[in-house]
From TrEMBL:
It comes from Microbacterium oxydans. The keyword Transmembrane applies. Keywords: Membrane, Transmembrane, Transmembrane helix. The keyword Metal-binding does not apply. InterPro entries: DUF306_Meta_HslJ (IPR005184), HslJ-like_sf (IPR038670). Residues 150-199 form the DUF306 domain. This is DUF306 domain-containing protein. The chain crosses the membrane at residues 18-37, 63-82, 89-111. It holds the Pfam family META.
Length: 238
């Protein structure tokens, strides 16, 4: 009578057990790797500027933890069922690995679908089909600006960089320049006469800069805060 050698069967069981342990350890490693990949992938949303479907993109991100939890639960349930039916133990963690991979790939695909409008816009710009967005023009001060009370207080900006006007008592003259943020510098604006006017607030002569906001010129003092304002002159409005 021939006696079968139990050694091959024992080695096979040991191999399957080791494979099952390896696959179980692989599940959390895949989850961590997918999470890190999603963090890096999220940087691609920079520049959407209203073109992306962020609800779809980040909705997929919100679903991913639930999908991972469902995958792990499914693997655990499968492990109990396989043990009860005496099936190979490594099938359960293999199922978990597959489900985690499917969850990561699916949520990544949905995330990219939410960013698809941005990619399409960038392609059109690269192909010259639509112009790239340009910086809006700076507010133009050229022309007349006057106080809303009587118009005696005013400034007139010329294209050559000179500015003239009156603070309601003395004539003003100087030069103006505009920085990249749109602020108008009036450092050289000085009185040209020495009249004395009782009851007149000559605030405009203390102006050192100005900002045009919504069509109104706010004149700033030496501290950089508004001390008064001017509206477009009658000729500028006509």
């Amino acid at each position: 009578m021939t006696v079968e050698d139990p050694e091959p069967a024992h080695r096979d069981r040991a191999h399957r057990s080791a494979l099952a342990v390896t696959l179980w350890l692989l599940v959390p490693l895949l989850v961590v790797a997918a999470y890190v990949a999603q963090i890096l992938e999220s940087f691609s949303a920079v520049g959407c500027e209203g073109d992306c479907d962020l609800a779809l993109a980040f909705g997929a991100r919100a679903v991913f933890p639930w999908a991972v939890a469902a995958s792990v639960i499914a693997a655990i349930v499968a492990a109990f069922m396989l043990r009860h039916r005496r099936k190979p133990a490594y099938w359960a963690p293999l199922l978990g690995v597959v489900l985690v991979l499917v969850s990561a790939i699916t949520t990544s695909a949905v995330f990219q679908a939410g960013l698809a409008p941005m990619y399409a816009r960038n392609d059109r710009i690269a192909n010259g089909e639509v112009p790239a967005e340009t910086t809006p023009p700076l507010p133009d001060p050229v022309g007349g600006w006057e106080a809303s009370v009587d118009g005696a207080t005013f400034l007139s900006f010329s294209p050559d960089g000179t500015v003239t006007g009156s603070d309601g008592c003395n004539d003003l003259s100087g030069r103006w320049s505009q920085d990249s943020a749109g602020r108008i510098e009036l450092e050289t604006l000085l009185p040209q006469t020495e009249n004395t006017c009782d009851g007149v607030d000559a605030w405009l002569g203390r102006g050192r800069s100005a900002d045009i906001i919504d069509g109104y010129m706010y004149v700033n003092g030496a501290a950089g805060s508004p001390i008064g304002g001017l509206q477009p002159g009658r000729q500028s409005r006509d």
